[in-house]
Structures are given as C-alpha cells and as structure tokens.
Amino acid sequence: MTIDLGHHGDTEVGAGLIDLAVNVRHAPLPAWLSAPLIASLSDLSAYPDGVEATEAVARRHGRDPDEVLLTAGAAQAFVLLAQALRGARRPVVVHPQFTEPEAALRNAGHVVERVLLREDDGFRLDAALVPGDADLVFVGNPTNPTSVLHPAGEIAALARPGRVLVVDEAFSDTTFREGVAGEPESLAGRRDLPGLVVLRSLTKTWGLAGLRIGYLLGPADLLPRLAAAQPLWAVSTPALAAATACASPTAVAAEREIAARVAADRDHLVRRLRHVPKLTVAGDPASAFVAVRLPGADKIRLELRERGYAVRRGDTFPGLGADWLRIAVRDTATTDTFVDTLIAVLEERP
User: Fold this and answer.
1) What digits encode the pLDDT tens for the residues 205-243?
2) Which among 64, 83, 164, 323 has most CB atoms closer than 10 A?
3) Which CATH number fits domain 9-27+253-348: 3.40.190.170, 3.10.129.10, 3.90.1150.10, 3.30.2130.10?
C-alpha cells in the first residue's frame, strides 16, 4: 500500500472546525516576542544577517556558533540533510514518526529503509532494531505522532563513527517532568556523540508556523555541507528576530511553564480517553498530542468533522493504519466537549 507521506494535519482543518489536528499552540504572542518581530519589519530593506540569532541559539544550548545552522523551519532541515548526504549507503527512518524526513530522502533519490516500532512495546525505541551498518538514521524524540519520549541513553546508543544520527526534537520544548529543570531526554547540548544532529523548531510552542524558523545543532565539520545546500538568505529577518527572542532566558523560563501546563492538559485528555469504549492510547504520551487506536477511526474522523472537530488521520504514518487518529492537546474545557462528542458518535454507530 502506498502511503501519502506529504499529508499533514493542516489538511484536516477547515472553516468552522475546532482544530485538534495541528500540533501548534493557539495563544497570543507574549510582548517579549511580538515586540522584536514588529521592530524587525523596519529592517526589511537589508538582507538578513543571522549572526546574532546564531549566537543566541548557541548560548541557549551551550554550543559553539559554528555548531548551529538556522533554517526556514525544521522541514527545510530535512531537505538539507537529504540533499547534502546523497552519498549515504543505507539511510534508515525509525517509524512511526513525522513523515517529512522520509519524503525528503526519497525526493533526493535515496532508497529508504524503515524500522517500525511496535504498539505492543509502547512504540518505544530499541536501538538494536536499527541495522549496524546504517550510516544515516532519523528518529523523533518525542515522536510525532505517538507522543512517546525515548530515553536519551537509548538514542545515544545509536551514535557511532561513520554514521549521521538525526534526532528530530521539534517537540522537545513541550515535554515536562516533575523535578527536572530542563527538557527531559533532550540531546541538544550533547557535543560528545559522533555524528549527532539535533533538529529544533520554534513553530509549536510559540505558534510561529507561518514564520518558518528552526535550526540544526551538530558537528562543526558537518554543518558547512548542509549550509552549502541551503539557499542564500534562507531565514528571513523577522524569523531571525524570533530565533533570538526565543533563545533568551525569559523565553526558556516561559517555555518550561507552558510545558508544565501542557502536561496537565495532556494528562486530563488521556484520563478522559481511557474511558472511551474500545479506544487505546498509544504508549506513554509525553508531548502536546496523543495517538489513539479506535476501530473504524477512518469513518469516525469524518463523523467528528460533521460535528465540528478536526483530528489527524493516522493511515499516512508508516507503522500505523486506518484505525489510528492523532489528537492535539488543548485546554480541559475543549477536551471535555470533544470527548463527550466522540462518545456520542460511538454510541450512535450501529
């Protein structure tokens, strides 16, 4: 069966629908972010200069500036990796996960091998499943769409000389663990692992999907190869202003507060979903969305649309199928009305 790797949650959203399909936080921008964005509009006559933003991101993660590459969203980073590393002999993508890495690899002419994590194992990563001679490996943490957060040690076990290990941490800033000061299981600050590349996005928590800003963290000897595949001035001046602001201590502290609230709202969603007949929640969710298995989910999704809710279909993720849905975490009031509607749809089915 051919899987539509280009399908994304925004396709599910329509006028008048409550959006539970896109994993972007819906909230006004804080003043410390909106002010520099607005101010940047007066500088649009000059070409973008990414030095300040690169240095700010480097400081945030304890890296050298030459270990940071700013990109027009994490999606561009996947394309750069696929194009610059065309010589990879055995690229592997660990699924289920965001489909853009595999799509970018295939579009660049790579023959892609899939490693499928199992529902029976909670979709947890087992490093032993990845072939030892794979020289380019992609894995998400936390993984979209399952929301599973893999132990940093299990991912680190995949790193080795001669391999580029790409860890998509687009949702790492949504994770929270009581008693942990930073992002649990993140490898963004690790400089000791050979070939490690970490991808980050500012889209999700700060609601900047339309601005397109993300970045790569990785070895200083690898990033110039990726930069060479990037268009000139790929990151706009407003996006650079956002990168600088979102790397500040103020932003990081606010991010941790938001992640704690997301965790509480997610726990509420999971508790409600566990009482829905015949529904199974995937793994141990740790991010701003959950994946669920529900018989007839492909038809239930359409019935939910008729009642005003958009959720993400699961059959476009390798390793899932038509009985899967992904549901974004929202406030508890929205969750309650959604789950009540879902139960009503199920009760009315023959």
Assistant:
1) 999 999 999 999 999 999 999 999 999 999 999 999 999
2) 164
3) 3.90.1150.10
